[in-house]
# Entry
Amino acid sequence: MSDFESVFASLANVNGWMTRDQARRLWNRAGELASGDTVVEIGSFQGRSMCVLASSAPAGVTLYAIDPHGGNDRGPQEIDGFADEAENDHQLFLANLTNAGVRERVTHLRKFSDDALGDVPGAVQLLYVDGAHRYGPASSDIRQWGAKVPTGGVMLVHDSFSSIGVTFALIATTWFSKGWVYEGRSQSMAQFRKSSSGRGGSILRQVAQLPYFAKNLVYKVLLAAKLKPVAKALGSTGEWPY
Ligand SMILES: C[S@@+](CC[C@H](N)C(=O)[O-])C[C@H]1O[C@@H](n2cnc3c(N)ncnc32)[C@H](O)[C@@H]1O
# Structure
């Protein structure tokens, strides 16, 4: 039996982009699942977030980690040409899951997310979208994989109101959809619940996140321009926002 604090502390040396609040949200949503449910994570990198999901999910929950570890869309400003680093990510992913004691629980699909749709049978009660952050693949992940989430199920989307591609993907797929209700966020990790009531959309609550989006964009422009002191003067931590 693990607890959140010890699992999170054990991941201190595992690279990734997941804050403590985000880990807590992953932990809580996975912990609410029941035996027979399914978790899918799109974009696993070195396993930081999957270690949390798999440590929290009750016995009998099936977990899939989808990541081609192919060197594309690896992280902020790492869109293409990182094949060697990604092979290393793959080895570290396996080692980190083993160290966390969850390797046997997780099925790794070393594929692009749109090629893996047929590998996961049935419904996905918890979907975590953190793969390619460009508009095309992000919107296709939300649409195609989101369609597998049943009423009452949860979709978490990382880099919401932070990455331009992901934010426009959310506008296109959730703002006017009656199927998704926006329930809040932990920094850039937004939570949506599948609704059957037709009261989805939640446009106003998502529009209210736009000042946070604008702030993140300003920080990113300044950091990319190597103007860290200016970004910090405006309230940035000096790190790439996520
Ligand atoms: C931001 S990282 C994921 C971080 C991870 N969730 C964590 O918290 O440590 C993005 C990952 O998405 C993967 N990726 C890129 N394109 C993908 C795609 N089309 N389908 C699935 N994964 C993809 C990359 O290989 C990379 O490891």
The pocket of S-adenosylmethionine is lined by residues 16-18, 42-45, 48-49, 66-69, 72-75, 86, 89, 112-113, 130-132, 137 (CB under 6 Å).
